[in-house]
């Protein structure tokens, strides 16, 4: 193997390592976005369940003078 072939192989290895690192970073960002989405859905579900158990509370304001 000559020097230029060795350098090309090293360059390919570095490019492949950078691509893998970029992919891992994107996957981590996707995982955090999904976890935030799930947390938001759980909060909405909790609110909906609370409102379905006591639908008469918080919907109207009754004032008598």
Task: Give a concise summary.
The chain is mainly α and 65 residues long. Helices cover 78% and strands 0% of the residues.
Explain what this protein looks like in three dimensions.
This protein has 65 residues and is mainly α. Helix content is 78%, strand content 0%. The protein has one helix spanning 3-53. It is rod-shaped, with a radius of gyration of 28 Å. The relative contact order is 0.05. The model has no long low-confidence stretch (mean pLDDT 83).
- The class by helix and strand makeup works out as mainly alpha
Taken in chain order, the helices and strands follow as H
- Report the uncertain regions: none
Strand content: under 5%
Q: What is the straight-line distance between the termini?
A: 96 Å
Helix content: over 70%
List keywords for this structure.
single chain, 65 residues, mainly alpha, 1 helix
Map the helices and strands.
Elements: H1 3-53
């Amino acid at each position: 193997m000559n020097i230029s072939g060795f350098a090309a192989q090293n360059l390919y290895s570095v490019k492949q390592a950078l691509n893998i690192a970029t992919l891992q970073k994107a996957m981590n960002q996707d995982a955090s976005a999904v976890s935030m989405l799930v947390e938001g859905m759980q909060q909405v579900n909790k609110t909906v369940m609370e409102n379905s158990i006591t639908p008469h509370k918080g919907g109207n304001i009754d004032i008598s003078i």
